[in-house]
Design a protein that fits this description.
By secondary structure, the chain is α/β, with parallel strands linked by helices. It has one domain: Aldolase class I (TIM Barrel), CATH 3.20.20.70. The protein is built from 12 helices and 14 strands. The protein has helices at 35-43, 77-89, 134-153, 168-173, 188-191, 193-209, 232-242, 271-279, 294-301, 312-316, 320-325, 344-352, and strands spanning 5-6, 12-13, 17-19, 50-52, 56-57, 93-99, 116-117, 121-122, 128-131, 158-163, 215-220, 249-252, 285-288, 307-310.
């Protein structure tokens, strides 16, 4: 995992570890990047091969968190450029994660409190999220492309389309939140349409404004618990289509790389291993989840994924990769007394949700 890795398009990483996208809640009041966030990314950019940023909303009604960086107008290009430069300073590739919160958006943070989703459904705040019109769907697809253009102009090495964690792209793919009976809902083929059209638009913009060395990835969640929700059998169909959609990598969202399939017609084996077989080497696959120690990292390799994302462990130990490379011991439990260069709002969130980071002292 410490050896260099080259994507199919020729982009080379110095090793096979990437920093997972983690929400910082720490943007300035105008949704530009804060100095604390710049320091946070810079501190963690010296060891991993790439840094994937916290998610950036692509259109005004897509904002899902307080303190979230924005990318929905050209006014934010300068802000985004600061993030890319900070990551490059440590020698890592910089990837901007782009998304729309859908029914998870915060009502008081979006225009007119108008929360939208694939269908009329329950919003995260207990109110109603209305169904998007066809024209609005097309506007959001275009917005993903426009934010990709801004990422290119800001100097990023790629974008990651966020189709996981119950945000808008997943809401369209899921039968639990997508009850449409038009071109964007009903059969699984129709529920795939919106995610695939977003991928196509991002690739169209890449072809116009960048070159083959600009990375485009897609992050997804494998299963949902609801009866009508995503099963691993559904996700196999999604992943199979995405693997042929001119992407540079696929990235699973998991809390633990060891987890097994739950809602699946086949054997209840490791999720990453199952999906790695589906991909069949067409694109690199990033695994993630609960890699803290060197022993965890060795175990994770057995899943077959080509790359692994480090999330919470890089909050605990910002220089994990460098220390492992040098044969040094790494800290695997959060010590709130250490200066880990974590933005204040994120630190406050961690203190409030003590179970969120294992071993909080």
């Amino acid at each position: 995992m410490l050896t260099p890795f080259t994507f199919n398009n020729g982009v080379k990483l110095r090793n096979r570890y990437v920093m997972a996208p983690m929400t910082t809640y720490s943007a300035n009041a105008d949704d530009t990047v804060s100095d604390e966030e710049i320091a946070y990314y810079k501190e963690r950019s010296h060891g991993v091969g790439a840094v994937i940023t916290a998610c950036t909303y692509v259109i005004a009604n897509g904002k899902g968190f307080r303190g979230q960086i924005a990318g929905h107008t050209d006014a934010y290009i300068a802000s985004l450029a600061k993030i890319a430069a900070a990551i490059h300073e440590g020698g890592a590739k910089a990837v901007l994660q782009i998304y729309h919160g859908g029914r998870q958006a915060v009502r008081e943070l979006v225009p007119n409190g108008d929360i939208v989703s694939a269908s009329e459904t329950l919003a995260a705040d207990g109110g109603i999220a209305r169904a998007l019109t066809i024209d609005e769907i097309h506007d959001i697809i275009q917005a993903f492309g426009e934010t990709t253009r801004r990422a290119i102009e800001a100097g990023f090495d790629g974008v990651e389309i966020h189709g996981a964690n119950t945000y808008l792209l997943q809401q369209f793919f899921s039968g639990f939140t997508n009850k449409r009976q038009d071109a964007y809902g009903g059969s699984i083929e129709k529920r795939l349409r919106f995610p695939l059209e977003v991928v196509a638009e991002v690739n169209r913009v890449k072809a116009r404004y960048a070159n083959d060395r600009f990375l485009v990835g897609y992050r997804f969640s494998p299963e949902e618990p609801e009866e009508d929700g995503i099963t691993l059998d559904d996700t196999i169909q999604l992943v199979d289509r995405l693997a042929d959609a001119d992407l540079d990598y696929l990235h699973i969202s998991l809390g633990d790389f060891r987890t097994q399939a739950r809602r699946y017609s086949g054997a209840k084996e490791n999720r990453i291993a199952i999906l790695h077989r589906v991909i069949r080497g067409r694109v690199p696959f990033i695994g993630v989840g609960s890699i803290y120690s060197k022993e965890d990292a060795r175990e994770a390799v057995s899943t077959g994924a080509e790359l692994f994302a480090l999330g919470r462990e890089l909050l605990i130990e910002p220089h994990w990769v460098e220390k492992v490379t040098n044969g040094e011991e790494v800290i695997t439990a959060m010590d709130m007394t250490r200066d880990n260069v974590i933005p204040g709002p994120l630190m406050d969130m961690m203190k409030f949700r003590k179970g969120w980071v294992p071993g909080v002292k």
